[in-house]
Amino acid sequence: MNSIKELLSNSNNIIIVSHKNPDGDAIGSCLALFHYLKKLNQNPTIIVPNDYPEFLKWLPNNDSILKYEETKTKSDDLISNADIIFALDFNAFHRTGDMMSILDSSNSLKIMIDHHQQPDDFATYTYSDTKMSSTCEMVYHFIDKMNNTDLIGKDIATCIYVGIMTDTGSFRYSSTTNITHNIISSLIEKGANNTLIHNNVYDTNSYNRLQLLGKALNNLIFIKEYHTAYISLTQKELRDFNYKKGDTEGIVNYALSLNRCKMAAIFIEDEKQGIIKISLRSKGSFSVNQLSRAHFEGGGHTNAAGGKSDLNLKETIAKFISILPQYKNALQNEI
Fold it and tell me: Do 219 and 169 share a structural domain?
């Protein structure tokens, strides 16, 4: 921290980067750090690999975020000339998609702030804590360790609140601690409007999004023997309901809410990338992080992870079902 304080005592060109398909924690942490660095007279720019859900685009200074897929030449130039790169909410460069090459080759000093398991060793300074509820909570602690919580105003508070709220499932996951709630209390005192934030993120559904949810739930399958549920969505089904980025966010949690369900998955066909996108959730000690790393080129947290498959949708689901016997005892435990 002393070294970072010294670094930030002078003005720097700083790039803030998130993972591909950024979520509330990624966008919230990037914008919170952006506002904070501005107050330190730094020159920060946020670059995210690709687009993100509409329900996050009301956040303060959202319009300043560059999307790499749309601004590659400009973004490459900014990254190449950066003094410092902050890597937020990811711990391996492959999580940034097409940005991986330019980030990996950059000679900029790198600072990682992240709460996912098994981080790569690419940063000069690494703040990694898998027990944290969110990267946004870690950004709050980072600002606190800089002795600058007095600089947290409404904008920073709002951005941090969004990330903590979304990554804790509205404060219901086990990663939510008394410290998390103390931070939330502080953020409300500093201007975060909790009711407005919740409404903007969760209560702005389009008609098509709710229709897509209905279709997804109609596709729900429960495998009683393995206490596992899964949902699948084809590209055609996404098109039928005019799919927009973020429309499938949180659907997998409906499957996990089934009585006696220990693990849930959603498989989404992505013709553009030629893959099946996979989101996994679990209860208790069952690690979907380990399962995803072992079988679906992914990872994340014990109870929330992502992955992908190069097989088609039918084959991917068949593969998923075929590996369940390996985890039968663990899936039956604690039920």
Answer: no
Contact of 25 with 135, CB cutoff 8 Å: yes
CATH of the domain at 271: 3.10.310.30
Comparing C-alpha atoms, which of 139, 129, 119 is closest to residue 34? 139
Torsion of CA 323, 326, 331, 334, to 10 degrees: -170
Q: Is the pLDDT of residue 148 over 80?
A: yes
Q: How far apart are the first and last CA of the chain?
A: 44
DSSP string, 285-323: T--HHHHHHHHSS-EE-SSEEEEEESS-HHHHHHHHHHH
- Global pTM value: 0.90
Q: Is 122 exposed, middle or buried (0-12, 13-18, 19+ CB in 10 A)?
A: middle
Residue 77: other Cβ atoms inside 10 A: 12
Examine the pLDDT at 311 and tell me if it is beyond 90: yes
For position 174, what pLDDT does the model report?
A: 86
Pairing of strands 263-270, 228-233: parallel
| Cα separation, 131 vs 194, whole angstroms | 24
Q: How far is CA 106 from CA 2, 47, 82, in A?
A: 24, 15, 9
- Whether residues 108 and 246 share a domain: the answer is no
pLDDT in tens, 40-78: 999 999 999 999 999 999 999 999 999 999 999 999 999
Say yes or no: 175 and 33 in one domain.
yes
Flag whether pLDDT at 231 surpasses 80.
Answer: yes
Span 95-124, average pLDDT = 95
Task: Write down the pLDDT at residue 318.
Answer: 98
